[in-house]
């Protein structure tokens, strides 16, 4: 699916898009994240419809982007939530999700987090280890509560994605080896303070071939059947997230086909089927809007196009060598020339693209870095005291700033500061 704010082919539509991005840049400044609500709605509807009549739940993976405007929007579409920290659980609650709509995952949950999860009565706590199971059982027993547990299994399946975001191999820190699961489920069933409600699997992210996802689904369906044969009956199968998108504008797995494969593997189980999509819902719906601040080229050296956005706003290229398309908002006439498109940060990894064919650009030109809706704003940092950028939601012909740019005072508010807030001067010495 092509984000409409970005790639309108017809020139009249392209003019509207460019004018809107210019208006946004004028009002919000750059760098800024810009999302399109219509795209998120369409992506959600496509996944949802593909389940047909099969009982299912779509748990939006908040880690992809937990800005209030986005989380509230997906909730209005009928989504449930997948939270990876207590912070995300609290944001989900603030956005109106009921505890019974939230699953809580995380490879290292702290005692207070487990405590809060139990007292809230979340839909499922996705347990990652025998030790965690033990701690959770004790904690729930102390409170006379019953914790709803889904066991996260590691099926030892290669997602064939970037190694930094592959999670389904034995070598990875996630979940328990699937062959240990039956014994652990017996343990859960034997403890009055635990209820076995689900099996959870998540083998990685930005997965571009559906086969590993299908095999992981089949593995947990087999496990559920074996448990059923033993009289251990769960409520849901949670297949995690992971469906990749086409960052290069080429082919990517069809999200509807992904759902059909899940339903094919598990639809006959009679259990509720849950998925935890993040990127596929939000990624293509967002761009990072940025301005060229310098163009430099020395004899015999590369040509550098320096943007006002850097790895502080979008870390994916620095962290994973990730590819994002980058285009001028108003293309200038001329032939593309290779350029290194870089940020302003003081390290060479702050590079969005190397040797990228780029149309002529000049200082001041507005650019978009595409497919930045997921794991963009969410992974931003204040390195170099750079403020978090604003976020803007475009909805039809209207748009609004849903997060203002962080100020220096916002940033410093957490710190001991002896300066007088009125004069900004330190004490006399
Ligand atoms: N469920 C669990 C348990 C997860 O760990 C993740 C992602 C998801 C769902 C959502 O996966 P998605 O549908 O978005 O692929 N920062 C990286 C991605 C890290 C993904 C972590 N877990 C990136 O920028 O590519």
Write the layout of secondary structure elements.
Elements: H1 11-28, E1 32-36, H2 37-50, E2 56-61, H3 68-76, E3 80-83, H4 86-94, E4 102-104, H5 111-120, E5 124-127, H6 130-142, E6 147-154, E7 176-177, H7 181-190, E8 194-200, H8 210-229, E9 236-238, H9 255-266, E10 272-275, H10 279-282, E11 286-297, E12 303-307, H11 316-320, E13 326-328, E14 337-342, E15 351-358, E16 366-369, E17 391-395, E18 398-403, H12 408-412
Parallel strand pairs: 1-17, 2-3, 2-10, 3-4, 4-5, 5-6, 6-7, 6-8, 8-9, 9-10, 12-14
Antiparallel strand pairs: 1-11, 11-12, 11-16, 13-16, 14-15, 17-18
Helix pairs in contact: 2-9, 5-6, 8-9
The structure holds ligand LLP.
Structure description:
The chain has 429 residues and is α/β, with parallel strands linked by helices. The protein folds into two domains: 153 residues, Lyase, Ornithine Decarboxylase, Chain A, domain 1 (Beta Barrel); 173 residues, Alanine racemase (TIM Barrel). Helices cover 30% and strands 22% of the residues. It contains twelve helices and 18 strands. The model has no long low-confidence stretch (mean pLDDT 94). The structure holds ligand LLP.
């Amino acid at each position: 699916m092509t984000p409409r704010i970005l790639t309108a082919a017809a020139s009249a539509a392209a003019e509207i898009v460019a004018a809107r991005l210019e208006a946004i840049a004028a009002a919000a400044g750059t760098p800024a994240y810009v999302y399109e609500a219509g795209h998120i709605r369409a992506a959600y509807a496509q996944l949802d419809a593909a389940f047909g009549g099969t009982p299912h739940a779509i748990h939006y993976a908040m880690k992809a982007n937990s800005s209030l405007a986005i989380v509230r929007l997906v909730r209005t579409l009928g989504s449930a939530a997948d939270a990876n920290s207590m912070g995300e659980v609290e944001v989900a609650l603030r956005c109106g999700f009921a505890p019974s709509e939230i699953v809580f995952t995380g490879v290292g949950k702290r005692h207070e987090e487990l405590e809060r999860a139990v007292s809230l009565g979340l839909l499922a706590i996705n347990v990652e280890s025998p030790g965690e199971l033990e701690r959770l059982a004790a904690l729930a027993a102390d409170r006379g509560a019953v914790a709803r547990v889904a066991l996260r299994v590691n099926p030892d399946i290669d997602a064939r994605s970037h190694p930094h975001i592959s999670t389904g191999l034995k070598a990875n820190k996630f979940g328990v080896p699937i062959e240990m699961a039956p014994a652990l489920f017996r343990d859960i069933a034997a403890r009055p303070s635990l209820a076995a409600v689900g099996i959870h699997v998540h083998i990685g992210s930005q997965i571009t071939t559906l086969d590993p996802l299908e095999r992981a689904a089949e593995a947990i369906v087999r496990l559920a059947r074996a448990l059923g044969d033993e009289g251990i009956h769960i409520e849901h199968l949670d297949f995690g997230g992971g469906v990749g998108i086409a960052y290069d504008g080429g082919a990517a797995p069809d999200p509807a086909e992904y759902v059909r494969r899940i339903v094919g593997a598990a639809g006959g189980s009679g259990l509720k089927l849950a998925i935890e999509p993040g990127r596929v819902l939000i990624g293509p719906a967002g761009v990072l809007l940025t301005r060229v601040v310098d163009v430099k080229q020395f004899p015999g050296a590369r040509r550098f196009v320096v943007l006002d956005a850097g790895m502080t706003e979008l870390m994916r290229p620095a962290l994973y060598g990730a590819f994002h398309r980058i285009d001028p908002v108003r293309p200038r006439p001329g032939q593309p020339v290779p350029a290194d498109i870089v940020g302003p940060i003081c390290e060479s990894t702050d590079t969005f693209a190397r040797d990228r064919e780029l149309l002529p650009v000049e200082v001041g030109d507005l650019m978009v870095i595409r497919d930045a809706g997921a794991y963009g704003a969410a992974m931003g940092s204040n390195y170099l005291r750079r403020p978090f950028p604003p976020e803007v939601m475009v909805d039809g012909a209207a748009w609004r700033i849903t997060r203002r740019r962080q100020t220096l005072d916002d940033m410093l508010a957490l710190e001991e500061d002896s300066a007088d807030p009125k004069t900004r001067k330190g004490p006399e010495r």
